[in-house]
Amino acid sequence: MKFEFCREDWVQKPCDVLVVALDDDWAQRSEFQSLDQASSGWFRRVMQSGEVSTKPNKVSMLIAPTGIPAGVLCIVGTGNASQSACNTYFRAAGSAMKALASRQRSTVRFVGFGNSPLEIRAAIAGALVGSQGQDLYKSEKSTFAPEIVEWTGSNDAQIRAGEIIGESVNLARLMVNQPPNRMYPETFTDQAIEVANDAGFSIEVWDKQRLIEERCQALLAVARGSIRDPRLLILRHRGAPPDSEPLALVGKGVTFDSGGYSLKPTDGMLTMKCDMAGAATVLAIFNAIAKLNVRRNVVGVLGLVENLVSGDAFKLGDVLTARSGKTIEIHNTDAEGRLVLADCLDVALEEKPAQIIDFATLTGACVVALGNDVAGLMSNQTQFQVDVQSFTEKCGEYTWPLPMHSFYSEQIAGKVADIKNVGEGRWGGAITAAKFLEEFVQTKPWVHLDIAGPAFLDSAKPWCDAGGTGFLVRSFAEWLLA
Ligand SMILES: [Zn+2]
Hints:
Largest sheet: 8 strands, mixed
Number of helices: 15
Number of strands: 19
CATH topology of the largest domain: Aminopeptidase
Number of domains: 2
CATH architecture of the largest domain: 3-Layer(aba) Sandwich
Structural class: alpha/beta
CATH superfamily of the largest domain: Zn peptidases
Radius of gyration: 24 Å
CATH class of the largest domain: Alpha Beta
Helix content: 25-40%
Bound molecules: zinc ion
Shape: elongated
């Protein structure tokens, strides 16, 4: 699929499919007027008939439109545009593309998707997301990306930037969608090296031996139940002078989570290939920022393990010594992500970052609290939290703060060790997980994003196939580009 800027008059130039976004106020839109004029009133009659809905993400295909040199005129609704415009255009473009991707097309032209550069990049990313499905191992493919996508109301540089961001979102989705027998710490590492070489950032790989030397005992304990050795990856993008403090991005990469001896039931385990979505998110953000030549120093730390059961697996009641020296009592082996992150955060601190952001499919409790469309946002610094919340919302990806009062820490006080890896009972589970992580960031400004809900779709949406979503890749690529 190739993106091009359409320089000619979009309504006169022939194409296979002309995709036009229209909101509830369609009669006022210049796109409507152009179509109405070119079709000598036919398009007005179509819209007045009420058969074409402008409700958000409704797609209508009009075959052989009168007076318009397109095989299909595709109208996608954007509703009353009261939500975040980036979210609206991302979803509308994705919905149109997903509907069109049911068969092979040559030239598809998008008109009326966004005004600001941020909105246009969001819409282009949406189109890319709609063009890729999870049919990775189907003998008959069900999703076909068009050969050429033409974009109006923009320029070449904008389109290229949107394309890079959209491809990065799809990279995160592809990583998550790969099954756990193919995606494990070693193969994740191989793919990450390929991404790093292609995008042009550096990557350092810590294997099991190095992890032992580096005293990553919390991470190693989680990995012990699997015959697949763990890895820790350090990614570095150098876009600023060496003395400029980097931003650190940390990702949870549990390539499969059985829960360990605190075994998950079948229903809860079935989609646990997505437990590496945090690591995939960070890798995808690096792909974007390296290709966009972001002028910041950024370091990424990814902890890759598989959490299984064996005669050597870690047990309830075990006491681990994390890399930072803190001792941890294990009360639940399914609360393993925070153990992996504890050592990753400690490694990240050594890079002397200005700030740390971690991404993790950490708790079911966060999904209970906020649902599937909003990530939990927890921080030790109010302004940093406010900045992240407002920026992600502007990009159309929602994050929402949960409280971090000091009394929550009492719940993770250990009996024989410094801390334990779960709170008392199940209440406030997303927060006690964050309080656990806070023990490993010292006083660095830090934001924790619990993406357990929005990282994965159990069933398809009009704009995105089921499976990985690449949630927050777009926001943080934009955050670093801004
Ligand atoms: Zn778990």
